[in-house]
Amino acid sequence: MRLPPLNALRAFEAAARHCSVYKAAQELHVTPAAISHQIKALEEHLGVALFKRMPRRIALTPAGEACLPKLTAAFAQMADAVAAAQHLAHAGRLMLSVPPALASKWLIPKLAGFRDRNPDIDLRISARQTLVDRARGELDQGANLLEGGDVAIRFGDGDYPGYVVHKLFDSYALPMCSPRLLEGPNPLRTPDDLRHHTLLHYENDIAMVDVGRPNWTSWLKAAGVRGVNTRRGPTFNHVTLAMQAAADGLGVVLGIPIMAVGEFAEGSLVAPFPLSLPTGASYYLVYSRENQDEPSVAAFREWILAEARAEPWAEPPQVPSAFAAVPDLSG
Q1: φ, ψ (nearest 5 deg) of residue 9
Q2: Closest Cα to residue 152, out of 94, 104, 107, 97?
């Protein structure tokens, strides 16, 4: 027996399940007219009426009632088959979307540890600046916040309805410079000494999220320093460029320490003062509820949460009593 076209069967099954041509059209993303056309073609193929047409509604005929349960089961089995094939195709592969600065300065240097623990998982990493929250009004709650990945690391306020969200660490801003600036004719020993040094600035990066942007004016006010022109000094379009300039001794940058883990370890950057300011934003691991039990997602979640907990620069340094209490200037 020659089977009817699959599209006609799908249209009938959806309309019969909903008892509505309109709802079937919504589910299958076609017009109601297209659903009606497919049902009519199916009835002509079978030589039997499947629906009773009545004002403002439809009802199944005995022939339609006989077809519906087995067709629903068949389409469910086909969906399971496709899902199984997709699972095998993606087995051992994990798509990760992450902000560029965090990827290059913190995540990638640690990935050898993940690979050693999970040699069968092939990570595919996409660095996307769109994973940095902008104004809350610009975030489309219906959008895919993973930017095409299986999991993502986002920088923002953590308000991502419909997703599984884990905080990795808060962010805070701290002055950083080359150790060479701690010596010389104007050694950088107290915050007041900043008046003798160049302040470095950056824009168009993670410090520009809507939830809070600490800056030199805020930091100097918290440190009780006056008389420093915060408008002077070179400006870079990305935080990593400003940090490189600081490491090269060009000045002092107000950066996020998690971005300078490697530089701190090798000694090219130091934090001369312990006073820090919260940015009002944090880094979050985000993934869909549908993927939370996937082995690759679970393995990455376990690994990165452990790395975040063990990161010494995830917490602000202790503030000596010589400094005023750190105010929250993020709001």
Answers
A1: -65, -40
A2: 97
Are 150 and 164 spatial neighbours (Cβ–Cβ below 8 Å)?
no
**How many Å is the maximal CA-CA distance in the chain?**
98
User: pLDDT tens digits for 159-168?
Assistant: 888 899 999 9
Are 104 and 260 in contact by the 8 Å Cβ rule? The answer is no
85: part of which helix (H) or strand (E)?
Answer: helix 62-90
φ, ψ for residue 166, nearest 5 deg: -125, 130
| Rounded Cα distance, 253 and 173, in Å | 9
Whole-structure pTM value:
0.66
- When computed from its CA atoms, the radius of gyration of the chain, rounded to whole angstroms, is 29
Sign of the CA dihedral running 170, 175, 177, 180: negative
Report the DSSP pairing between strands 235-236 and 199-202: parallel
Element (H, E) at 63: helix 62-90
Task: Read off φ and ψ for residue 247, nearest 5 degrees.
Answer: -65, -30
Cβ count near 70 (within 10 Å):
10
Task: Tell me how far CA of residue 70 lies from CA of 19, 61, 76, in angstroms.
Answer: 17, 15, 10
Residue whose C-alpha is closest to residue 200's, from 216, 180, 222: 216
Distances (CA, A) of 37 to 3, 34, 87, 89, 323: 17, 5, 35, 36, 77
Phi, psi dihedrals of residue 177, rounded to the nearest 5°: -160, 170
Give residue 146's pLDDT band: very low, low, confident or very high (50, 70, 90). Answer: confident
